[in-house]
C-alpha cells in the first residue's frame, strides 16, 4: 500500500463564498442563487470530510514510519556503574 500524497499536494478545501443578501432578486426564482449556494456548501462539506479522512490517514502513516524512541538504546550505551565494594 502506498502512502497518501503529502499535504502540499492536497490543500484543505475552501468553503464557497456566500452570495450577498441583495444577490437574490426576491421574485421566487427556482432555483434561487441561494439554492446554488446551498448545493456548493453541501459539496464543500463532503469534500472537507474526505480531505479530513485523507489527512488523518497521512498522520497515521507518518506516525507509523517514525523511528522508535531512543530511550532503550540510550540505557544500553551508558556503561554500567560499578557497585561500591
Descriptors:
rod-shaped; 2 helices; mainly alpha; 0% strand; 85 residues
Please give the structural blueprint.
Elements: H1 33-64, H2 71-77
Number of strands: 0
Helix residue percentage: 40-55%
Largest sheet: none
Rg, Å, rounded: 27 Å
The CA-CA distance between the termini, in Å, is: 58 Å
Q: Order of helices and strands, N to C? A: HH
Low-confidence stretches: none
How would you describe the overall organization of this protein?
The chain has 85 residues and is mainly α. The protein has a domain at 28-64. Helix content is 46%, strand content 0%. The protein is built from 2 helices and no strands. The chain has helices at residues 33-64, 71-77. The longest helix is centred in the middle third of the chain and has 32 residues, at 33-64. It is rod-shaped, with a radius of gyration of 27 Å. The model has no long low-confidence stretch (mean pLDDT 82).
Amino acid at each position: 500500500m502506498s502512502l497518501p500524497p503529502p499535504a502540499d499536494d492536497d490543500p484543505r478545501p475552501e468553503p464557497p463564498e456566500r452570495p450577498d443578501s441583495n444577490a437574490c432578486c426576491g421574485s421566487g426564482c427556482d432555483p434561487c442563487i441561494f439554492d446554488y449556494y446551498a448545493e456548493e456548501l453541501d459539496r464543500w462539506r463532503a469534500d472537507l470530510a474526505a480531505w479530513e479522512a485523507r489527512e488523518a490517514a497521512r498522520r497515521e502513516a507518518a506516525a507509523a514510519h517514525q523511528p522508535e524512541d531512543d530511550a532503550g538504546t540510550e540505557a544500553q550505551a551508558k556503561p554500567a556503574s560499578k557497585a561500591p565494594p
